[in-house]
Amino acid sequence: MAPTPRNTLIANGQALIGDLAWPTGGGPKWHPYDIAVQRDVLHPQLTAVARAAREVSRVYSPRGEVTARLTLHPTFLAKTHFPAHILRDAGLTVLGSRATQVTPRVSQGDKQGPQDTAEILVAGTPEGFEAMDRQLGDPAIAKGRQEEFTHIESVLTYAGESKLRLDPDTPWPDFVHVTLHAGEHDADLLTAFQTFTLQLGGEISARGFRFVPGLAFVAVQLPADSVPELARFERIRLVRSMPRLREQLDLTAALTRKFPTLVLPASRLTAPGPRVAVFDGGTQNSFGAHVVELAAPGLPPATVADLAHGVNVTSALLFGPVDPSHTALSAPPWMVEHHRVLPTNDSPEQALDVLDRIVTALRIARTADRPYRFANISLGPVATFFDDDIHEWTSRLDTELADGRTLCTAAVGNNGALDGELGRIQPPGDAVNLFAIGAADTRHPKWNRAPYSATGPGRSPGFVKPDVLAFGGSPAEPMPVYSPLAGGVVAVGGTSFASPLALRTALGVDVLSQSRFDPITLQALLINAAECRRGHKRTDVGWGRIPLGPDAIVHTPLDVVRVVYQGITHPGHPQKAVIPVPRGLPAGTRVRIGATFCYRAQVDSAHAINYTRAGLWVRCYKAPGQSLPLFGSGMYKSEEELRRDAMRWDTVLNNACTVDAAELDAPYFHINYQVRDESEAVRWEDAVPMPYALIVTLQAPGVADLMTRVQAEFPVLQTLPVEVQVPVDGLS
After folding, report:
1. What backbone phi and psi angles, to 5 degrees, belong to 69?
2. Which domains are assigned to the chain?
3. How far is the C-alpha of 179 from the C-alpha of 239, rounded, in Å?
4. Which residues pair with 181 in a beta bridge?
5. Rounded to two decimals, what is the model's pTM?
6. Quick one: pLDDT at residue 643?
7. For residue 721, is the peptide bond before it cis, meaning its omega torsion is within 30 degrees of 0?
8. For residues 541 and 531, is the Cβ–Cβ distance under 8 A?
């Protein structure tokens, strides 16, 4: 049978990117309060905070400072409204920020009740808060400073009980995981904290402190009844129960079809392929030349359960779900470096030990300038999700992967059947620089989220989580994978196996494209190709279910054209990316435009609500001066938790719309790169260029010569030269 005619994706869309001036816009900002009202409200609050700072014991505050919670009015979430000048004038130190809810004294329009806003944590001496109070009352205060004061809803001390995130069911009530606002060079703070812990009868873990910019993480052994007293230490941000490692999903299911006897295929690699890492429970070197196992130093022998998990995860990445009609496994055109990071001691620090092993391996590879191009993490901690809570797993991995040189998939967790918050994604699935994968219940056209697959949303930025779903198995349709240890095909299920399956699809595209695309571009391609039905909830399925194999990404039907743009944007230099819709389409044609932007960002872990330091502001125009509302709050099926100003800081933008071809006259995207540091806007010249990926898919139903029309009008566009000698079958 002759192959079905199809289009191959266009690989050089960046040829359509040029510079453009950024339009001005926006009217005057509504202000809920004037300076006279703020003097009446904030003066007693600042006086109380200054008094607390004067009275605080040096045991709790080695620098004689207190931490205050400065809550902004919900109208002023954008970085341009950050009250930087009045804080700097008073000599106050911004420690971090996070999401919170407040019922403002005055609301705009008909808004009532609690609203999402930002809470800024600031540290200062009594003199600092008194200076802020004097500035507030100064009749000669400059207008700009007055406006900053009108953005503030309240200024209150950060009480110790507000810092506690304790699980009453923890198996380790005498151990806590503490997050401090301190850096590696804050020796006085770290020493004072250690001394205070000892005074309470506690002990710092031998593991010591782990740092990301602005935060320190440490495990502490301490009598449970002393934990509230520990939380009074001023530089503590949060005190959590110790995280446990997730348990494996017990999927009670049997294979309903008979599978042939299979053996490992011989490796057919003739040259080094992309570096691929799996972090899991080991393989016992059972995959021959396809896998190299590397064990973290000091690990005890693998347990049976950990080994089975590691083997099955690795098999899903190498061979995918086994097709019962195939009599042999196809040799994958890549090999895997399997880092055995399990088992860990059944101790309070088990999840943190595993994280250390993963970060160490990633860092060694990056430091040697041989970073992994692909990685998979199918394990993580059990951690109830809080919007204001950046977990150590999340922040350290986001920091490690911010350079964009690795596409790392991560399983979001198998707790989706639990109620409410308990069913939400687990770290590191809430990370913005990882590709968070949930599980679909079947490979067939009528699919849903597997009931066990953890749900979103994430925090903003990173609101849409999971990013996508991949087939993960279900009781009705378990995933069949080949286990060399079992000597045949076994039934598995869980997000642990959906995650490597998603990475396998990305690897397939990488092989077919001869590694032409950056890792972030591969992620954008998978998101752009994901399918989602009208009845699916964004919190359940993310951007949708991805194809099992790369063919549906690299190739499209004749009336569909997919274009890949790989761009680099600079602050202060907006860009225009032309959407290659050809003129002269048949009358009545309605064109569907789907677009996906992806990028990696440096993160401010101390600023949960302003977590990413870089963002893209994208506007779409169907004709000069005529906007097309492709990106905006309408991308999200639920806007309950979507905060104003957050969308532009998400590292993924994805949406589609349909428009009459007659309305399209040289359509384009207007792209602007924005930067911030510790929630503040920064100077353009201080920011680094940012690579990004844009995928545009055009569909003109019934126009079978769409590719011909596109390339005739935009002759610079070239299709991808596909490596036909390397078959990558998504079901083999």
Report:
1. -100, 110
2. 13-20+555-713 (2.60.120.380), 35-159 (3.30.70), 173-241 (3.30.70.80), 276-550 (3.40.50.200)
3. 6
4. none
5. 0.92
6. 46
7. no
8. no
